[in-house]
Write a structure and sequence with these properties.
By secondary structure, the protein is of the alpha+beta class. It has two domains: 1-36, no CATH class; 44-110, no CATH class. 25% of the residues lie in helices and 29% in strands. A four-stranded antiparallel sheet has the order 4-5-6-7. The chain has a three-stranded antiparallel sheet with strand order 2-1-3. A hairpin with a 5-residue loop joins strand 4 and strand 5 (56-62).
Amino acid sequence: MTNPNTVFFVVNGKRISLAAFLAMDAATVETVDASGCTALQGWEIIDAGADSRCYGFTGVKIRGEWRVIAGCRNLTPAAALRHWGPEGASNRPDCLELVQKIVAEMAVAI
């Protein structure tokens, strides 16, 4: 098994270990760049693509909880649907479509 203190990637623009990442409050995680990190192959990640502003929309399972990470947002699937939905703070059909794509691939009930 890989030692979580020897695996590094970029979270919120800073290089940190996997151990430090796992100790973080999920609500503080804004961006994750794990490109090329072969030690993380077991993670559940859904790449839905990018919106019209080129913000990537990604579903990531962290500590057993699905999160939708997009731009500066790190939301639960339900909160993401509300945020980008018709009555949400950011009513953006292109973003909502990407969130719906992530949710469709998740094995969770919203």
